[in-house]
Specification:
The N terminus is likely disordered. Helices cover about 50% and strands about 20% of the residues. By secondary structure, it is α/β, with parallel strands linked by helices.
Length: about 210
């Protein structure tokens, strides 16, 4: 896998949209968020390049991984989430990610599941892309949308400084809180969201 092919991210996003997933919406939203992040533009640029490299690598290994695996980057820390059906595939994804010397830390939270469970998640992604998930309150993608609405509207929370994913109703969140109070508020808002069974936090608090 050629992890240095940065331009592959654009290809990956196009492929996601073509497959009927919510990739295009995600791209627009992520771009808008980056314009407001409370951190240096060079840090954003570095993370974007790392993310592009990782997505291109997933595409080269298997197009299905673009659907099944997420790689969220914050300050050169990478949170891997999603589902695969083979522990060997999971190990290979993690191994490849760790070859990128720009990455400070890798959090491997990819779940190994049955083929039936993986297919169910893919169908849920399609349902979300067609705006049909609202009738499925425990749908992971709908859970993510509800969390987004709560964090964006919350006072004293800079929502663009966080990335979150729901996998089988466990929510994984990475980012940086401005202080301990904001951290506590973010976790409380996520915990009280319908459909959230568990939270795993990789949020760091801003020094000082």
């Amino acid at each position: 896998m050629a992890l240095q092919r940065i331009g592959g991210l654009a290809i990956a996003w196009v492929l996601m949209a073509t497959l009927g997933l919510s990739g295009c919406t995600t791209v627009v939203w992520e771009t808008a968020k980056k314009l407001r992040e409370n951190r240096l533009s060079e840090d954003q640029f570095t993370d974007s390049k790392i993310g592009a490299t990782l997505m291109a690598g997933l595409a080269e290994q298997s197009l299905g991984l673009l659907i099944d695996v997420n790689a969220d980057v914050w300050e050169t820390r990478v949170l891997l989430t999603g589902m695969v059906t083979d522990s060997g595939v999971r190990k290979e994804v993690v191994r490849q990610v760790r070859t990128d010397k720009r990455i400070l830390k890798v959090y491997d939270e990819i779940q190994v599941v049955s083929a039936a469970e993986q297919a169910k998640r893919r169908e849920a992604a399609k349902a979300m892309s067609h705006q049909a998930a609202a009738s499925q309150p425990d749908n992971d993608f709908w859970v993510e949308t509800k969390i987004s609405a709560k964090l964006v509207s919350a006072q004293d929370v800079i929502s663009v400084n966080y990335r979150w994913r729901s996998v089988r109703n466990t929510v994984y969140v990475i980012g940086r809180a401005q202080n301990k109070q904001e951290l506590a508020q973010v976790l409380a808002l996520i915990k009280t969201t319908d459909g959230v069974a568990r939270i795993k936090s990789f949020i760091e608090v801003k020094p000082g």
